[in-house]
Design goal:
alpha/beta, 5-stranded parallel beta sheet, 6 helices, 50% helix, elongated
Length: 163
């Protein structure tokens, strides 16, 4: 039976066996898993979901496009979404590009499913921290509005020192 509070991870890969192995690994780590067989279905899953995925694990090279498209779409949808890019065709340039676009990590095949499960846990933790930070900032700004300099409160002496 699935846990409705478990984070849902989107796994994107054109290889059914890899999707299955990752699904099993992630479920054993306590996650719910959604899968997509390619870029188009991943983009539809990202756009069509009420809540953003906290984690997307995507292959880089697929027949219908690039995992970079998935990365961009996931990060555009939500800053909290973490993306792990996996590939068998690793280059320094592609790894740097993925990180520049906001990937949480870049993993080369073959990899240990258990290690990827641990990496997924860390990425989910980061996603939760980013979301909590966003919520706390929103609560704080509703309680004490910041001025144009980002300062909170109304002590004129402190404002004079800071500005």
């Amino acid at each position: 039976m699935s846990d409705p509070s478990a984070p849902v991870v989107l796994v994107v890969d054109d290889e059914p066996s890899l999707r299955e192995v990752l699904g099993i690994t992630l479920r054993r780590s306590g996650f719910e898993v959604a899968t997509a067989a390619g870029v188009r279905s991943a983009l539809a899953a990202i756009a069509g979901r009420d809540q953003p995925f906290p984690l997307v694990i995507t292959d880089l090279v697929m027949p219908d496009g690039s995992g970079m498209e998935v990365l961009d779409a996931a990060r555009e949808r939500s800053d909290e979404t973490q993306v792990i890019v996996i590939t068998a065709f690793s280059t320094v340039e592609s790894a740097l590009e993925a990180m520049r676009r906001g990937a949480y990590d870049f993993v080369t095949k073959p990899f240990s499913p258990a290690e990827l499960g641990e990496l997924a846990k860390k990425a989910i933790e980061k996603s939760q921290i980013v979301e909590e930070n966003r919520q706390l900032r929103a609560r704080l700004s509703s309680l004490i509005p910041a001025d144009e300099h980002g300062l909170f409160g109304d002590d004129t002496v402190m404002r004079d020192v800071a500005i």
